Amino acid sequence: MHGLGNDYIYVNCFEEKVKNPSRLARILSDRHYGIGSDGLILIGPSQVGDVRMRIFNADGSEAEMCGNGIRCVAKYVYDHKLAESGIMFTVPGQSPCSTSLNIETAMGISHVGLIVGENNRVEKVCVNMGQPILTPQNIPVNMLGAKVVSKPIEVAQQKLAMTAVSMGNPHAVFFCDNVASVKLEEIGPAVENHTIFPNRTNVHFVQVLNRNEFKMRTWERGSGITLACGSGACACCVAAVLQDRCERICTAHLPGGDIELNWSEENNCVYMTGPATEIFEGVWPEL
Question: Where do the domains of the chain lie, and which CATH numbers do they carry?
């Protein structure tokens, strides 16, 4: 499945057992000798939600959250009838979704609303991504101050202004005049593995188009350049608002498509709405 081209392989752990998901993620994600993906996501039973998701990057490391991944999990669960959908899901200032799911992640329960098409299959998913974490030690990033907003950092022989945000997973956001000109394949891994990030970080470059739109490119921690990053889009929205570059309701244009964002003043949560697409099913000889 993919969310705006951010593709993961999903295993239904209601039916399958995965002995070593870290190893399997590395094997399956290889685009030449495996299936090819940005990582592996397991969908299984939960004691506290409708289902539980676990996310493994292409390098085998386990991630806390994946915005595009959780939308795809919600679609799979509804379309394949793995759980009963719940009550109406309301986004402040927007039309409500008629049905919802509670999905357990490493960061706790995420509440998602489902936008169902005429064929009774999910077309879009709205996720309450929770309140952004801005305290440096909780992101975590080893920098002083109450927040890291437009703070200088030297990386790859460049001096850049960085804003750090956690949406359950760490993000470093940089604003620029033209995202297409950024040498992301060089700067991305240098920022990801910078010593100030004890758990590494996701890296985003953002070009603001107007008060309600921005373009972004992403280097994902453990996966490299990807076509989209849902939690990253949320982090970029927060960073843009903190620097008074964008309004709280805005659209992120990613290489793989668009994500609608709403950083609510009502409850301080970031809501993310975007598509989820199932590509194909297959059988791997050994899990």
Answer: 2-128 (3.10.310.10), 136-270 (3.10.310.10)
